[in-house]
Amino acid sequence: MGQLVVIFTFFCAWRLCRRDTAMRDGISPALWIPTIWVGLLASRPLSSWVGGGEGGDSLDGNATDRLFYLIMMGASFYVLSKRRVNWSIILSRNWAIFLFYGYLLVSVLWAEFPFVSFKRWFKELGNIIVALVVLTEVNPSQAIRAVFARCAYLLIPMSYVFIRWLSDLGRRYSPHTGELEVTGVTTQKNNLGALVLVCGLILLWDLLEFFKEDKETRRKHRFDILVRCGLLTVGGYLLYLSDSKTTIVCLVVSVLLLLATLIPPFKTRPAAIGVVSLVGLLGLGLLEWLFGIKQAAVEGLGRDMTFTGRTDVWRELLNLNTDPTFGTGYLSFWSDQSYRVKVPEWVASSAHNGYLEIYIDGGWIGVFFLALMLVVVGIQVFKRLATGGTFAVVCFAIFLAVLIDNFSESYFARMTPVGFLFFLGAIHYRRLSETRRVTNFNERKLRAAPSPLRRMGGPAYSENEG
Question: Which residues are within 8 A (CB) of 435 and not within 5 positions of it... i.e. 6 or more apart?
């Protein structure tokens, strides 16, 4: 029975992907590169799916995984070279991101195994390269939505199928607590939460774009609207099963921000969303200072002040007294036996805090470059809000979600779907030739459109949307 359901799910996902591709303008076949990339980041390593042996270390992988990442990065470089991407513009407009990763590259020099650390850094760089394939599409906003919609068509229902009919694949006993937890197509429950977060946020954005259309267009896409509502419902059920509270908080915040674009005062002035959000955060900080509301909020989410034992993990890691200035080297701590033997067995191979993870990797210098990157990206996101457009609000929602989620999970400079989504919202790339390419595309669509559409001016994609 389980195998038949899997085959049926694959068939439905394939049909939905074909339908989705046909209804989107301004996307190319090259978009399947980031689709496959995100699909594996959000689920399991390729070696786990094709039976190429155990994935081994989740950050290094085995030969099958390394070959896959190398091929995908090479294909992405080829696509970018055909598009004549201006690398000087990318570096200048995203200097803080590359400065942060530049320091992480330098930190491999003092890692226990520099070559292994470099390979992990190079693979993480692939996230940026593949993300640029999406951002250099003719219509980047459609490209982002297409990538995550395609992944959602398969991974969200398949996660439910794994949990319901293939429990050996969709459930596991936690090696640290011994409790039964749901994993779906991923390897652990927190990864399942990350899958729902990235796909759910973009699906909601896609759904809101349908509701902004006229009544006739909405009627035409009624089936697509129902599919997205169904996927969001299943995703919400998966979040309930995984009990990932931080992910739920991030998704709720993102939902509120996106729904705010439908409210008239914010619809015409999206910059006000950023102002209200900033005032809200300052207000929460003031309430915590005056009344200490944090404990009540945490307990209201069904957690204690240890954040499900995370504070104990943080204490044990900080007590190891790693180099406070330079750290242990990029992604080398968890494979360094001189530290591993000092870590209690109940501590998993993660700090469960992205900020602490960077401190361990790069010391206070690494934290400084991380903070610099986040400040610069935050300023750029606020500037986008001032220019208007739903895409700017989506970038803001992604930025806040990443900031919040990294307090309980490690996503900075890690091969994760959340990290990939961060790049899509953070990397800024648009130049005159790209704008002309969009204009030429719109002109071709206009010439091919029926006469009533030509009189209305045809479809248009502005810089605010991409």
Answer: 463
